[in-house]
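Chain A, query sequence.
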Amino acid sequence: MRLLSRLLFILVICLISLALPAVPVQAAECVPWKIELYPEFGPPGTKVTVHGYQFPQGEYVDIYYDGVRVSQGTETHSNGDFSIIITVPEDCTGYYQVYAEVGYLDAETYFHLKPGLTISPQKGPVGTDVTVKGQGFAKNEGGIDLVYYLDGSYQTVERRITANAKGSWQASLQIPASTRGEHKLDAQGSESKFYQVQDATFRVTSEISIDKSSGIEGDTVTMTGSKFGVYEKGIMILFDGQAVATDIKANSEGEWEESFQVPGVPAGEYSITAEGERTSREDVGELGFEVQPEFILSHDQGHVGMELTVTGRGFPAYEDVIILYDDSQVAIAETDDKGTFEASFPVPDSKHGEHLVRAKLAEGSNNTADLEINASATFTMESDPPPMPEPISPANGSRMGFLREVAPTFEWSEVSDESGVAYYSLQVATSADFATSSVIVTVTDLTETNYTLTETEALPLGTYYWIVQAVDGAENESGWTATRSFRVGFLPLWAFILIIAVAVVLLILLIRALIIKRTIYYDGW
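Chain A, predicted structure.
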């Protein structure tokens, strides 16, 4: 009877508690609604699902962690249930309240925060630099040792670490020599023991390395591998997922070396990895390789007017490429699906020496990479001077004119050059050494092999000298011809005066003789 009366009393109390839902202590024991956590324990950063059951439907849910609201706005389902994921914040080890408000109802439970480790990166070859972060340790806990598990034993890799006021710490290290596969990292301190700490795992992968990280199509790249299976067969090198070397075999140490050529692909970053019969790509990891654009000239030197062909490889696919010679556009081409193009153009008139030929993407390109630095080549213009022309007229030592100025026509032989003769230059001077002060006529850019002086250039009586030279399309100059002289006026002035004087004397003598003869004739009568 006593037992029955106690049961009746408890039943009455529960009924009263249903009528008074605002009393939290009674509700915690007898109310039908509740919340549960999954998981119920873990380190900071754990994703925890808060499950709620048998709440009123369509009510908004607010979740609080240690008194701080971490979620709001979710509604309960038609059956009054809900599921909300929260992330456990950084803090020291211990129990923390998780509290839910659903309309005018509430419920609570506790999350057990435990110490744990995280590692970044989580895989790589021996020697990989990693960062290990510990969280959820005791406040300012000291004497923390970090260990790395080998086969059947462990190695202490960091000692005497001290946590901060939130129970967190961080350490950096290199993965020590160890076998391929997963290796555990664990820690313990003055308060936290190994079995209490959620450990981290690092996966030691096979090691690969390449002798260069960038190149152009056709470049030879050598890869070495280690920590593969002993005498493992069927190893292949994969460039962007495509096999570029196959049938590689590891030695008794699981090591190998093989070379391959960079395939024809558009410019950009690509991954290189390897795999074998017993080693997966995931066990190897991958390396980055940059394919750079290549720019090739059919000739690296030549002359004006020659046909020059440029070939580009490793450019972005299906893009218009402009070819520039000394920053002047000379051709345009379109790349194919592999980023290859070809274009030809005649070499324009340009000075002897080096000239930059380069490529750039046309405006409006979908690719923003700057290709101008690498996608260029040097063309060297020939520097051989053209032949020297031969003076023809006026002939050396010739005379022209009589007593007034003349405008003679100068003529010379035509010359030829592989860069083409661009023009001729002519100089006329009053002295054979062509001193600057003696040069009275200078004419350049003559495209014909003759030149007639203008009226303003007409030459007065005197002796003159002339020379001529040729300049080709590469601005190479021939030597000046040998000096030729000529004279304006058939007689010197003194000779002309003497002739006039003699003529006057003779005329006077002739007149006098006629007068005398006439006098004798009349006297005879």
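The chain has a mean pLDDT of 88. Helices lie at 2-19, 24-30, 281-284, 493-524.
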